[in-house]
Amino acid sequence: MAYINAAVATPQARFTVLSSTLIRLESNPDGHFEDRPSQVFWYRRQPIPSFQVRRGGGMLEIETDRLLMRYTLDQPFSPETISIRIKASGVTWCFGDPGQGNLLGTTRTLDTVDGQAALERGLLSRQGWTVVDDSRSLVFNEQGWLEPREASDNGLDLYFFGYGKDYAACLADFRKVAGPTPLIPRWALGNWWSRYWAFSQQELTDLMLEFAAHQVPLSVCIIDMDWHLTRTGNACSGWTGYTWNRELFPDPPAFLQFLHSLDLKTSLNLHPAEGVHAHEQKYPQMASAVGLDPASKQPVAFEPTDPAFALAYLEY
Predict the structure, then answer these.
(1) Which of 252, 230, 250, 227 is nearest to 239 (CA)?
(2) Contacts of 155 (CB under 8 A, 6+ apart)
(3) Is the pLDDT reported for residue 3 higher than 50?
(4) Is the pLDDT of residue 208 over 70?
(5) Long-range pairs for 302-309: beta carbons < 8 A, 24 or more residues apart
(6) Distance (Å, whole) CA 311 – CA 291
(7) Closest-CA residue to 300 (of 286, 279, 285, 314)
(8) C-alpha distance from residue 266 to each of 140, 197, 223 (Å)
(9) Which residues, at least 6 apart from 312, have a Cβ–Cβ distance to it below 8 Å?
């Protein structure tokens, strides 16, 4: 058994004590363990907490002030081979336990929801523990770009949060390893106005002035998708677009300045999935940037996983 700083490794498993209530559990038959930051967990190099390591009788024990982990050496994770007891409550988690009493988290979208919405599992549970499975998330390479884990890596990468009733400790642990969440600006908590309609610049100007005249407190005006060209004359459905419709918006800079003069934030409704087609104003630059001949008029496919596309997309 090797012991390096906060990590305790065996041939098939590695355990990293990130805090007195948070332990990373890795299992892999080929002994490969992931050190690169993942999409979720960026900051694993935490101050080393106080903990003890004991081995004997084919067992490995790791004990912190608040947790006691027991693992059967050189065995894959199973309910019989690994468990963690939360000292304060006496509750013991065994691998594979689905858990009860999770207080749930969020949902991706409210589109098509009519009534109750299904929520994802969250970090907090009345049982006092949560397991986050990070086994299949992408990792950052040396260039800072996301990529899949190695194809041969069929192991497990779990994070056990064992906090009992100390919910604040769980949230603090997650913040440490996942990174802090900045506060949203105050204006984002205000009223947002949006309507899917082919408004003209003048119509939206008149509407915003009418809201102001009636002292309706708006913070944000969303300009819906007809701000861009929708009748494209090519294979693009018109749902995606990046070029202002000058028939509806003859002077976009002036309109944006007008919105700002009313202390309104604004944003353009955008659906990027169809890529960049030849009718777009910046098509020649985009095509050239991704190695496509602009004369071909072939659409630039939306490939956000391609660094060349992503950089050109943000620039042009």
Answers:
(1) 230
(2) 26, 27, 28, 29, 30, 32, 33, 135
(3) no
(4) yes
(5) 302/240, 302/272, 302/273, 302/274, 302/275, 302/276, 305/146, 307/143, 307/145
(6) 13
(7) 286
(8) 33, 16, 7
(9) 285, 286, 289, 290
Tell me which residue has tokens 């589109």.
111
pTM of structure: 0.83
Residue 20's nearest CA partner among 181, 178, 172 is: 172
Mean pLDDT calculated for residue range 212-220: 97
Strands 218-223 and 191-193: parallel
When the pLDDT of each residue in the chain is averaged and rounded to a whole number, the result is: 94
Measure the CA–CA gap between 18 and 23, rounded to whole angstroms: 6
Residue 273 tokens, joined: 């999935």
Helix (H) or strand (E) holding 13: strand 13-19
**Unique residue bearing structure tokens 């694993």:** 44
Q: Say how far apart CA 159 and CA 22 lie, in whole Å.
A: 7
Q: From residue 124, how far is each of 11, 92, 99, 104, 116 by CA, in Å?
A: 32, 16, 11, 7, 21
Rounded to 5 degrees, what angle do the CA atoms 42, 45, 51 make? Answer: 130
Identify the residue with better confidence: 151 or 241: 241
**Which SS3 state, helix, strand or coil, does residue 168 take?**
helix
Work out whether the CA dihedral 227, 233, 234, 235 comes out positive or negative: positive
Which two structure tokens, joined as six digits, stand for 113? Answer: 């929801």
Place of tokens 């030849």: 278
Place of tokens 């009418």: 210
DSSP-derived letter for residue 227 is G
Rounded Cα distance between 59 and 309, Å, is 51
**The amino acid at 205:** T
Q: Does residue 2 surpass a pLDDT of 60? A: no
